[in-house]
Design a protein that fits this description.
The strands form two sheets. This protein has a six-stranded parallel sheet, with helices on both faces. The chain has a three-stranded antiparallel sheet with strand order 7-8-9. The protein has 283 residues and is of the alpha/beta class. It is 39% helix and 19% strand. The chain has eleven helices and nine strands. The structure holds pantoate. Pantoate binds next to strand 2 and helix 7.
Length: 283
């Protein structure tokens, strides 16, 4: 079946009310388009668990801290619609800017200390923009379950907290990162890499794996675990951060005492890549 492309909130609500009246569980995958296999894994999971699957496609200006990143963000609605059709999506919600933000957004979601570290530290206002648009989308779609990629670990932790703090009746599911054969996490931004940059990009994941190995082999001091790994990285690419953080607060830990997330951001040319791995120290 060809998915219906809906562009207005009123039409979306009408269509989803009909699905709800048939007692179909509503699964939601929010995206900014340029769909790749990472998105496909979220959609497949939603398709397997829900009676009606909604994918939103909206490049949210509120979450871009650099105008060039927003301008260069890939847009491919026709291709995305074909991907959604292949994956059995029921509804595509693709609002224009004025539908999403009919008036300037005066009230926004302050995510507090959750944005103090990792990407939040280097991308001022980014998570405020993410949390605000996600809360708006939840109000518009009213999903039973919403699916987010583990790749954006800080985003996922923030969405979970927004849902909890604002009592939003939705279950949040995190889906495992999809990787290329050499370990590079799939991202819409990978398309911007030149062949030389593409060759450097998998270093981020290798670095994270190295830190994970250290922690899993018993290194408890976070600085020890990351410092030695960073020292071993050859020059190409600029590491923006590499931190060992608590999975819920997203604050760095000095000593690894339980499950942690090791997260990093690597600049390769003018492209910024992020990735993370979870790990647990030996008992
Ligand atoms: O992860 C993304 O693609 C975006 O941050 C999201 C969740 C769709 C909000 O714009």
């Amino acid at each position: 079946v060809t998915p219906e492309i809906v562009t207005s909130v009123a039409d979306l609500r009408e269509r989803l009310d009909a699905a709800r009246s048939e007692s179909r569980r509503l699964g939601f995958v929010p995206t900014m388009g340029a769909l790749h296999e990472g998105h496909a894994s979220l959609i497949r999971r939603a398709r397997g668990e829900c009676g009606h699957v909604v994918v939103s496609i909206f490049v949210n200006p509120l979450q871009f801290d650099r105008p060039d990143d927003l301008a260069r963000y890939p847009r491919s609605l026709e291709r995305d619609a074909a991907v959604c059709e292949r994956l059995g999506v029921d509804t595509i919600f693709a609002p224009v800017l004025e539908e999403m933000y009919p008036r300037p957004q005066v009230c926004t979601v302050d995510v507090g200390p959750l944005a103090d570290h990792l990407c939040g530290r280097f991308r001022p206002g980014h998570f405020r923009g993410v949390a605000t648009v996600v809360l708006k989308l939840f109000q518009m779609v009213g999903p039973d379950i919403a699916y987010f990629g583990d790749k954006d670990a800080q985003q996922l932790a923030i969405v979970r907290r927004v849902v909890s703090d604002f009592s939003v009746p939705v279950v949040i599911v995190g889906v495992a990162t999809v990787r290329e054969a050499d370990g590079l996490a799939l991202s819409s931004r990978n398309a911007r890499l030149s062949p030389e940059e593409r060759a450097v990009a998998p270093r981020l994941y290798r670095l994270l794996q190295e830190v994970r190995r250290r922690i899993e082999s018993g290194v408890r001091d976070a600085a020890d675990a990351t410092g030695q790994a960073v020292a071993a990285v050859p020059g190409a690419g600029r590491l923006e951060y590499l931190d060992v953080v608590d999975p819920e607060t997203m604050h760095p830990v000095a000593t690894v005492a339980g499950p942690v997330i090791v997260a990093g951001a690597l600049w390769v040319g003018s492209t910024r890549l992020i990735d993370n791995v979870r790990c647990t120290p030996p008992a």
